[in-house]
Amino acid sequence: MKFIGILGSTGSVGQQALDIVKEHPEKFKVKFLTCDSNIDELIKQLVLFKPNYISINKSEAKQKLKQFINSKNIDCEILPFKDLIHKVKVDIVLNAISGYQGLEPTIEIIKTGTDIALSNKESIVQAGHIVIELAKKYNVNIFPVDSEHSAIWQCLVGEDKNNIKRLILTASGGPFRKLDKSKFFEVTKKEALNHPNWSMGDKISIDSATMMNKGFELIEAYWLFGIDLEKIDIIIHPQSLIHSMVEYIDGSIKAQISTPTMKIPIQYAFSYPDRFAIDNLDNNLELWKVMNFEGVDLEKFKCIKLAYKAIKLGGSYPTVLNVSNDIAVDLFLNDKISFEMIPKIIEETMKKHNYNKNPNLLDIKYLTKWVEDFIPNMVESL
Fold first, then answer.
1. Domains contained in the chain, number
2. Last residue within a domain, chosen from 144, 173, 189
């Protein structure tokens, strides 16, 4: 039995993680759940999974939650987030918080010495140098939950890192793979959210449409696997059946192939080194469709180009890339900017910020605040 904590339990990844717990009650037990504000979904989870502890960010939602627990006489304690992380002992914590707000929780988990299943790629993107060093210091395993990085991890099991020739990240190409770049200004929110293969939350769906998600994954792979940037490639694989590959120095290539579902990487992070069956998984793969690849147009999907630039320049650039993308995506989702403006806003913010060669956590907080103030003012002036 593994005891599990889930941060961001009401989001897409959090809900799929709970589906896995539900399928394997003899293997996993939820000790705590957290969310930002979705009180109705959290109450449903509280009743079904009976966590010992719970935390919610919004104060008004917290009061409603407290009233519900008292009225139903439920044995569950509401704790502030930091108290919960440091008080409650579990075997692994899933960080499924979306966006740059996930960094501080990642660091707090690592400081407890608890292994982490990391869905929040932004933690690594904006502060990879800090997160990886802390994980080494506290002897913490970071198990990637991204389908691509989970695929690479699975392909590396039992292999010598010195034998790696390159990592190959696959990308579906998103909903606009075949759309001419000149049409990007016409893209609607509904179209951008309509991913052809994956069911995801709004933020990651837009990142997939701009392909910034692949830029983030490039940076994440660099830090997670300690591989030189020149040895990490990105290719488009529209079917999303090959989730990533590793090529070795003898010419062999290992690929992880499966139905496009987040349940597989989530469960592997929970169950490693074991594997369990997943209920109701449509795994009737049409393998004859698998070997279909395309190159990536870095001018069309400029967000990937910006990610390459950010990790090459290093320092504060990845932080600014990450935070400015979060804000630009939020502006698009709230109908404040057009789709084509997302990479333009990110690029301009990267240009205008004051470069810091080796930012610490306080520097990152300052940069985050600067970006949060800079972008709205810039958008107003356009």
1. 3
2. 144
For 57, residues 6+ apart whose C-beta sits below 8 A from its C-beta are 34, 35, 36, 37, 81
3-class secondary structure, 140: coil
Alpha-carbon dihedral 75, 96, 276, 91, rounded to 10 degrees:
-60
Give yes or no for a cis peptide into 273 (omega within 30° of 0): yes
Q: Tokens 């939020």 correspond to what residue?
A: 330
253 and 328 within one domain: no
Strand order in the sheet with 242-248: 232-236, 164-171, 242-248, 253-257
Using pLDDT thresholds of 50, 70 and 90, give the confidence band for residue 37.
confident
Enclosing domain of residue 39: 2-144
Residue with tokens 């180009």: 305
- Residue located via tokens 């998984």: 281
**Residues 257 and 241: beta-carbon distance below 8 Å:** yes
pTM: 0.92
Nearest to 267 by CA among 22, 9, 10: 22
Q: CA 243, 33, 71 angle in degrees (round to 5)?
A: 145
Task: Please give the mean pLDDT across all residues of the chain.
Answer: 93
pLDDT surpassing 90 at residue 201:
no
CA distance 82 to 42: 19
**60, 119: one domain:** yes
Write out pLDDT tens, residues 254-313: 999 998 889 999 999 999 999 999 887 766 777 766 678 899 999 999 999 999 999 999
